[in-house]
Amino acid sequence: MYSSRFVPLVALSIVFQTGAASHWSGAGLVLARSLLPLSDGNNWPDATNTGVPAGTVLTIYTGPNVITVAGTVIENKIINTYIEVRAKGVTIRNSRINFDGWHPIYAYEGADGLTVERCTITGQGKTGGSYGIDTSDISGSTLIGNNISGYENGITPGSNVVIKGNYIHDLQAGGADPHYDGIQLGGHPKVQANVLIENNTIIGRDNADVWITNDFGSIDGVKVNHNQLLGKASGTGPNISLPVFTVYVDGAKPNGTISGITITNNIIQRGVYGFIDIDSASNVAGSGNVDPFANPI
């Protein structure tokens, strides 16, 4: 378990009511960069320690868009297209992916065991409904140390997934009404389960840094631990805004249930209406969360 250098872990006392939202609220709009040890042992994930490692020699990718051979490794490449994974055990590592479509990396059902590690994945901010990495239909993916920007959503995972040490920022998309999420879980008809979200920096906007809803099915077992969950409240450019709620959990839809959510040891910047919103979910627990001023939430 991780703890702040400045603040001891503080348990949260929360009452959850089916059909009634529970809001954790407070203040704090400062980027706390050095509260906790992180992915490289010293700093939170950012542009210096995620994506393609410095000094990596890249060559242009000339392989297929659709990967059908199990165990394929794509490494040290510049990829100016999408990668569609249809085989098990594929690895994409230390590569720069430039693609302005819906899914620069998309795994079809059955393509379990995908690893995406230390990739810089960049969109142009023009495609509505886009995801930097979409593994929502598979199991056993490992998504570590990636730098993701320029899409409507950063990552949408499946089941039995590790999402760790990523830097998700500068979300942007075209269309009339984009809903931006750093990491988006929408449930699955076969149940979305066992998701670890840990040691990430997410600088979200408009919707949520972590979005958990039962739009497409049940969700069981999500651990949101030791992340830096922020918004972009100042600066220049088109994507200056805060999330509505920084962490949003809503199981009110009739498509399944949400249970087993833990939210622990995070630095959370307050969204427009609050830090965390929880509605119609069971077995939810939280502790050790602080705002960017190190005040307990």
Tally of helical runs: 0
List low-confidence stretches: 1-41
Number of domains: 2
Determine the strand fraction and express it as a percent band: 35-45%
**Total strand count, please?**
28
> Biggest β-sheet: count, sense, barrel?
10 strands, mixed
Structural class comes to mainly beta
Q: What sequence of helices (H) and strands (E) makes up the elements?
A: EEEEEEEEEEEEEEEEEEEEEEEEEEEE
- Radius of gyration from CA coordinates: 18 Å
Helicity level = under 10%
Q: Between the first and last Cα atoms, what is the distance in angstroms?
A: 17 Å
Q: Mean of residue pLDDT?
A: 84
- The global form is globular
Structural features, described:
The protein has strands at residues 22-24, 59-60, 66-67, 73-75, 77-79, 83-85, 91-93, 96-98, 105-107, 115-117, 120-122, 131-134, 142-144, 147-149, 153-156, 161-164, 167-168, 181-185, 192-198, 201-204, 208-213, 219-225, 228-231, 245-250, 258-264, 267-268, 274-279, 282-287. It folds into 2 domains: 1-49 and 196-297, no CATH class; 56-86 and 95-178, no CATH class. The two termini are 17 Å apart. Strands 1-27-24-21-18-15-12-9-6-3 form a 10-stranded mixed sheet, with no helix packed on it. It is mostly beta strands. It is globular and about 50 Å long. Mean pLDDT is 84; it is low at 1-41.
Give a quick summary of the entry:
With 297 residues, the protein is mainly β. It contains no helices and 28 strands.
